[in-house]
Amino acid sequence: MLKTHYCGELKKGLVGSKVTLAGWVDRRRDHGDLIFIDLRDRTGIAQVVFNPQISKKSHAVAEQMRSEYVLKVTGEVSLRPSGTENLKLPSGAIEVIADEVEILNTSKTPPFYINEDTEVDENVRLKYRYLDLRRERMLKNLILRDNVVKFVRDFLHDKGFLEIETPILIKSTPEGARDYLVPSRLYPGQFYALPQSPQQLKQLLMVAGVEKYFQIAKCFRDEDSRADRQPEHTQLDIEMSFVEEEDILKLMEELFTGLIEKVKPDKRVIKPFPRINYKDALEKYGSDKPDLRFGMEMRDLTDIAGQSEFSVFKKVVADGGKIKGICAQGCADYTRSQLEELNKFVQSYGAGGLLTFALGSAPGDINNLTSDTVKSVAAKYMTLEQIKEIGQRLDAKLGDLILVVAGKPKVVDKALGELRREMGQRLKLADPNLLAFAFIVNFPLFTWNEETKHWEPEHHPFVWPWPEDVSILEKNPGKVRAHCYDIVCNGFELASGSIRIHTPELQRRIFRFLGYSDAEIEEKFGGFLGAFEYGAPPHGGIAPGIDRLVMILAGESTIREVMAFPKNQNAVDLMLEAPSVVREEQLKELHIRLRDD
RNA sequence: GGCCUGUUGGUGCAGCGGUUUAGCAUAUCUCCCUGUCACGGAGAAGAUCGCGGGUUCGAAUCCCGCACAGGUCGCCA
Fold first, then answer.
1. Which residue is nearest to nucleotide B10 (CA to C1')?
2. What's the CA–C1' distance between A118 and B23, in Å?
3. Rounded distance between C-alpha atoms, residue A190 and residue A170, angstroms
4. 3-state SS record for A47-82
5. Which nucleotide lies at the shortest CA–C1' distance from A418?
6. For residue range A390-402, what is the model confidence (pLDDT) as tens digits?
7. How far is the CA of A149 from the C1' of B37 (A)?
8. What distances in angstroms separate CA A444 from CA A11, A275, A440, one per listed residue?
9. Which nucleotide is nearest to A570 (CA to C1')?
10. Which nucleotide is nearest to A543 (CA to C1')?
11. Domain locations along chain A
């Protein structure tokens, strides 16, 4: 090794000993005769002093040093003269008096600050990601991610899980997201697909008798990116045989609570994780991934508001719609332009508009509400009693603002749910140190797609329906319940899993119901179903997203901040400049001719 | 594909129709400095204000189009 110690290791105990450090120039402070260098490596920063009276030669070298130069320094660890200690640095009580130094490499002036935590344009950061990762924030995120993955591996190994790799080149299947395809050289016109997840493979491992499997698995989906979605992401893929839903949930709760305790002990977790029915989540929060760090639950007001003379409400009720509201505490003083902003907000989610009731001006009991202190366009078409009743249902007080959306049930839930999220953020209702985990359970097996006019799997086609519902599978598909569960945390879907179908008959029946012909089933899933003829055990699993988990733990707002080399929103790697054109010979080998359209 | 936001020296920001010769901070370069730690001091260099059109006597500033980026809807079993 070119070094005997790491910068972050230097402690008072080493005073008097000779050490050799190697790292990067974080900062140089040149006092003419005396030069201080903050030397940085992965573990931290150590101050190196170049004194011409100790070594004229080293001092001359130090005069040439610039930010990010790579150095090897040898010298004695010394206590700093009293009064010059730096309490901000862990190594601030000591310094290294350099007597030998070598510049291992020079550096151009970096395009942005490595040694300061300032916002830098993400294009520039991604282009120079190798420099961006030198910054403390990124290094911390990489270390956190390593800690998370290590904990998970140890935890699952202790529980008897086998870590098994599955291939990256697999078969394209219908359903789900758009596949990334890889052309086959040996088979003209044929393609591999990159896995959207190792779903079928892990089920086949259960048929193989592995019983407890996990993998830190790369997954690929050729869909548009978001703050929490990238073309490739990492899942903790888990599958177990002879389990019931309860076993998986218990395991996950133990994993996550243990993990937080170990890697983020400063975060608060509510135990046990609440379990919320899918239907209730939509009803109360308008989302299947609610942020449970704050309340502000939605309440149905259709029965009250529908009684009023307000034409908007009457029409919505006549059309079979519903009317729901939330209560924003202390927001009765919102200005017209603030309200208009919120109106636009709900409209962007398809709602006709937002109806507001400002309840008085000063805080007080809702029963003291008077008609002249209610501000709302609907007020004159409603009785004071009706407005009070709405307020009571939403636990509102005087001084609060009631926000109401009316329309088609799905649109109301979506728009008001997003508004709840937005208001929670504006009012800073969510405790940043709280991790509000919850299980979302009792999903329906199918969901009706209005556009294709088909029933589609709510989750995926391998989910085990409740046995007592199997008889109504074809007759009343919307009523079939699924052994399917999500883990949500702070408004993000962190994991998704299910107990799987393990008999070929039922699996075929589901495929047929979803509209596949027997020939298609054979072609797309023949191998998979064949395996199930040979004693497939009951099994199930779950797959938490590592990127999202680490993002939440790191307090970051995009998963790009916890990935070493992410792509931008348009799926471009700005550093490698991928994707790129390839040589004509490569295309020829792959039997590919480009279309020009 | 739709909607919203942004684009000003290397980086971060200000300027939002007229003494602006585009300002500030920081980085960079030169010189000075033996106890700094976001060292300090003096000086220098560095920008056709994303691109293209238009309005105007006059545009970084107003309008239109385009590009790029971010957020989001659609999409994401």
1. A111
2. 21
3. 12
4. EEEECCCCCHHHHHHHHHCCCCCEEEEEEEEEECCC
5. B72
6. 999 999 999 999 9
7. 36
8. 59, 16, 12
9. B69
10. B77
11. 7-105, 140-272+437-562, 294-429
CB distance A37 to A24 below 8 Å: no
Encoded tokens for A77: 């660890």
Helix (H, G, I), strand (E, B) or coil at A490: coil
A412-455 pLDDT, tens digit each: 999 999 999 999 988 989 999 999 999 999 999 999 887 788 89
Structure tokens given for A514: 């979803």
| pLDDT tens per residue across span A97-145 | 999 999 999 999 999 999 988 899 999 999 999 999 999 999 999 999 9
- Selecting from 3.30.450.20, 2.60.40.1120, 2.30.110.10, 2.40.50.140, what CATH number does the domain A7-105 have? 2.40.50.140
Measuring from the CA of residue A31 to each C1', which nucleotide is nearest?
Answer: B33
In the complex, which nucleotide's C1' lies nearest to the CA atom of residue A178?
Answer: B76
With contact defined as beta carbons under 8 Å apart, do A125 and A112 qualify? Answer: yes
* Nearest nucleotide, CA A572 to C1': B69
* The token pair that represents A108 in the structure block: 């151009």
Say if A7-105 and A140-272+437-562 have the same CATH topology.
no
The CA–C1' separation of A343 and B69, in angstroms, is: 28
Q: Are A235 and A546 in contact (CB under 8 A)?
A: yes
Distance in Å, residue A548 CA to nucleotide B21 C1':
51
Q: How far is the CA of A118 from the C1' of B12 (A)?
A: 7
The spacing between the Cα labelled CA in A128 and the C1' in B21, in angstroms, equals 35
**C-alpha closest to that of A218 among A191, A195, A193, A200:** A195
Give me the mean pLDDT over the A85-108 stretch: 94
Q: Which residues pair with A102 in a beta bridge?
A: A72
Q: What is the 8-class DSSP label of residue A469? A: G
The gap between A471 CA and B77 C1' (Å) is 23
CATH 3.40.430.10 fits A140-272+437-562, yes or no: no
**Contact status, residue A399 vs residue A391, Cβ threshold 8 Å:** no
List all nucleotides in chain B with at least one atom under 7 A from a protein Cβ.
1-3, 10-13, 26-29, 32-40, 68-77
pTM greater than 0.90: yes
- Architecture per CATH, A294-429: 2-Layer Sandwich (3.30)
Q: Which nucleotide has the least CA–C1' distance to A199? A: B77
One DSSP character per residue, A511-535 reads HHHTT--HHHHHHHHHHHHHHTTTT
Tokens (6 digits) for A329: 């505490």
In angstroms, the CA of A467 and the C1' of B7 are apart by 58
On the question of pLDDT at A474 being above 90, the answer is: yes
Q: Report which residue is nearest nucleotide B74 when distances run from CA to C1'.
A: A224
